[in-house]
Specification:
Layout lengths: L1 H9 L1 H19 L2 H4 L4 H15 L20 H12 L5 H25 L7 H12 L1 H5 L10 H18 L4 H15 L7 H14 L3 H28 L3 H11 L13 H15 L5 H22 L5 H23 L15 H11 L4 H20 L10 H16 L5 E5 L6 H9 L12 H4 L4 E5 L14 H4 L4 E10 L2 E8 L2
Parallel strand pairs: 1-2
Antiparallel strand pairs: 2-4, 3-4
Helix pairs in contact: 2-6, 2-7, 4-5, 4-20, 5-6, 6-7, 6-9, 6-17, 7-17, 9-10, 9-11, 9-16, 10-12, 14-15, 14-16, 15-17, 19-20
Length: 508
């Protein structure tokens, strides 16, 4: 604490600028977060599962399923959600605020890492500019204000790489403990965290061969591995209990390479540049192609300059920083280029911060006035594009409010009686509505094909998110509708927070 106070006293202007960056980041993430946050089927499912930790004493052993194959992540994020959900009295906004705060910590951590990796004698403008651009990036803002397991990855990926670098540069092996814990959290947020493994292993091996007394290093390594496996163990227990369903799915993913991944690294080379341009364009330039190309080109020029042109006298710390970033970016691009399916923005989570770190490094290494001028123009252009495309400019989606309002309306229609429930939608499922019904102890009953006598009620309430002429609730093939049997519409309610609600009864 004394060091922090001393730094603030000696760096008042930088502290004020950093505080401004954090305030901007906080506003972008927390402003009307309950109205802007995503709350659809996935988010509803997550809060249902987490609430059961408290109401049914049911700790989950697995996390969310992935979008590819029958693979499941670990449950680490569910346990992170638990306390925020409880503090906010089971209001789903609690976990979303947790994500926003973690996003703010990531901004601060990014500034700290750039400042340490690329120090300057006076104000570290590279760290400030990079953290500011990260704070206002539209894509990053979107993923920093909703509760979703991939949204924790940027922080834990940065912590993983930074901690293993600290092991390398300081020989303080206690940092291995942080590496093990943070990497387990990173891997449980998304399996693309596997692309960090080569960087971790290479640095670990380099430290091993340069450590004269290996006993202490290996001891901390085993502790780190133990903690990593401990955090991953719920997933292993689930797998053991369910005939290794997850392991088989992962094996199938890597062996069915016609549709998933290629194992030939040289095939990734042509795809590395487009992916780098996509990453920089999406994250730094608000999906503006020209910004992506310019920033990607700057990053490549920076690497060429460092490795082929400047080649300064050997400095251990600078070398470790350069190699760490190079491996992080290189292995990430190789892995993404080998992936054969569509790459969504959240897949970049393990590498979210790297374009901003590189921009900070470039700014801190400028030598000539023309360089400062060109970078200033680029930064101003990025800021302009980001502000123009800010998600705050769009109207709030009000998804949580809709789920709450519609769930209450469904309960009113049911009139306190038992009812079956179904949702007709193109790309959503019913967990968001179900969550609020669970909170209200509504008498919603799931139809069990093996026990229709006790699980089919006298009324089926259907919420339709489609246009009304595309609903047709009496003939919809969904299991919840078909399982209820032949039906007739006895009441309908139009435009209930943008949806249509039908009350159905049996025809006989």
């Amino acid at each position: 604490m004394d060091k922090i106070k001393s730094w603030i006293v000696n760096n008042k202007l930088e502290f004020v600028l950093l505080l401004t960056v954090l305030l901007v980041g906080a506003f972008a993430r927390l402003y009307k977060i309950d109205q802007y946050m995503t709350f659809l089927g996935d988010e509803g499912r997550d809060v249902i599962i987490v609430r059961r930790i408290f109401t049914q004493l049911h700790p989950p052993l697995i996390g969310p399923g992935t979008s590819i194959g029958n693979m499941y992540l670990g449950p680490a994020y569910y346990y992170m959600m638990a306390l925020p959900l409880l503090i906010f009295n089971f209001n789903p906004v609690g976990p979303a605020i947790f994500i926003a705060i973690l996003g703010l910590i990531t901004i601060l951590f990014l500034w700290k890492v750039i400042r340490e990796w690329f120090p300057t004698k006076k104000i570290n403008y590279g760290a400030l500019v990079a953290s500011f651009l990260y704070a206002i990036s539209p894509v990053i803002i979107i993923y920093s204000r909703s509760s979703w397991n991939p949204n924790i990855m940027p922080f834990f990926a940065l912590l993983t790489v930074y901690s293993i670098w600290k092991v390398w540069v300081t020989k303080n092996f206690k940092w291995l403990i942080i590496t093990g814990i943070s990497y387990a959290c990173c891997l449980q947020s998304h399996y693309l965290g596997l692309l960090l493994a080569p960087t971790i292993l290479v640095i670990w091996f380099l430290v091993l061969i340069k450590t004269p007394i290996k006993k202490k290093f290996l001891g901390y390594s085993f502790v780190s591995l133990f903690l990593f496996l401990l955090i991953m163990s719920p997933l292993a227990i689930f797998d053991f209990r369910h005939n290794f369903i997850n392991s088989k799915a992962i094996l199938a993913f890597f062996t069915d390479r016609q549709t998933t991944v290629s194992v030939l690294p040289w095939k990734a080379i042509p795809g590395m540049w487009p992916i780098l341009a996509n990453i920089t364009g999406d994250l730094v330039g608000a999906k503006t192609n020209i910004v992506g190309v310019v920033v990607a080109a700057l990053i490549l020029i920076a690497f060429v300059f460092v490795y082929l042109i400047r080649r300064e006298k050997y400095n251990f710390k600078k070398t470790t920083v350069t190699l760490t970033i190079t491996m992080w970016l290189f292995f990430g691009l190789i892995g993404l280029a080998l992936y054969k399916q569509h790459i969504y923005d959240h897949y970049y989570g393990f590498i979210f911060v790297t374009p901003f770190i590189m921009l900070g490094a470039i700014i801190n290494n400028l030598k000539y006035k023309i360089g400062y001028l060109l970078i200033a123009i680029l930064v101003l252009g990025i800021v302009f594009v980001d502000i123009q495309n800010s998600p705050l400019a769009a109207a709030p989606n009000m998804q949580m409010q809709r789920a709450r309002f519609v769930a209450t309306k469904v309960e009113e229609i049911a009139n306190g009686e038992r009812f079956n429930f179904a949702l007709i939608a193109d790309s959503n499922y019913d967990s968001a509505y179900r969550y609020f019904m669970d909170l209200d102890n509504a008498k919603v009953v799931d139809i069990n094909p093996q026990d229709t006598k006790d699980t089919i009620t006298d009324q089926l309430i259907v919420v339709c998110e489609r246009e009304k002429d595309k609903c047709d609730p009496t003939h919809n093939p969904k299991a919840e509708v078909a399982g209820f049997g032949w039906t007739k519409i006895v009441a309908e309610y139009d435009n209930v927070f943008g949806v249509t609600i039908y009350k159905l009864a049996h025809t006989n």
